[in-house]
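Late entry, evening session. Most of the bench is empty. Finally got around to the prediction I had been postponing all week. Sequence below, unchanged from the version circulated by S.P.
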Amino acid sequence: REASLSSLFNIDRPLESLSVSLQNAQQNDIMTLGNTTYLLKRTKASTVKSGIDYKYHQSTYLFSEDDLLLLSGNDAAHEITAFGENTWQHKGLALTFGARLTYYSADKGWYLDPKMQLAYTIDEHHSFKASAHYAHQYTRQINYESRLGQSSDYLVLADGNQFPVGSSLQFMLGHTFRKNNWLIDMELYHKNLDGTLEYALQIPGFDGDFSSVKNRSYKIFSGKGRVYGLDLLVRKEWKHFETQIAYTLSKSLRQFKEIRRNLPFPAQDDRRHQLKWLSSYHLGRFKLSANFIYSSGKPYFAINELSAQNTRSELPRTAIRNLPSYQRIDLGIDYSFHFFSQKSTLGFSCFNITDHQNVKYLQYIFSIPTDSRIGAPLRTVVGSETTLLGRTLNFRFRLEF
């Protein structure tokens, strides 16, 4: 993917005029090719699976500001894995133990990933599940925070140096209930991350000197993370109508020794509450649908809360805020018929029918000296607000063969 952000603004004051143009550009492409071969053996009491997995990764990335190249690379790596697992079954119990042993060519390292899964069915209505999994990540996600305060995630390959191989330890415990076309599924989860990556300025924001905006000091920070929460799904089906509600209560944190005195802070994907309510009604050949989507606002970095020389380790707690919540209502109608004996569907939908203005991010441009008229000059942060897609109509035609 590629992204380019340009900003141009003018400042007009008595006997003074200033025009500044800023441009940030990011490019990122990743390709993965591979093959998996395995053997499967089943008996009445167990199932054994073993095999070999091969992947070839290639990644290119580039980050620049104006005509200054910040970070770039064109990397390739091989991933060769031998894996195996055994599932024992007895009455309503299924217990799985497995492991993966991987050789990663970029750092010539060997990595072991064990896992355990348990499923227990009490009766036709109730079942329980649990899992524990330790895994390594060779395709790394790095969060890039530009000088404008905009954060985006990109994919790079671990190289054992500036991009270390990441790891995660995750646990899950859940319960499922089924009866009379009701489904209630609940999962509790906890994940510890090691080797999370952030690419950002050591002294964030602008210094107010237009002539030195290119003297940027970026650094790759490596730290830890933690994600925990609850997923709840409730679904009910009738003859012509079905509805489901999916709710997530979660918290996602990041922690770096050189950021905020090693105190945890919200990750970019932190959304405390997420709710999806999906419904559909079948009336003959017609299908009517309605969706409601809600999510807590994502965290963002408020540059206007910083002093001129705040380093990453000294960031105030008030510098991290949340955007307004995301809200959306979608309506749609589909008509099914046969077109030249082929099953077909003609549909119309309206995305975000209320045209709610959902904010994507706040972009801070510059700290500009302004005349207070009564004493020392004041400084004003100039910025803009970027919104997501508003009300959008969509027509579709689908032909199935």
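Two things to note before I forget:
The longest strand covers residues 16-42.
Residues 2-399 form a domain with the Maltoporin; Chain A fold (CATH 2.40.170.20).
Will write this up properly tomorrow.
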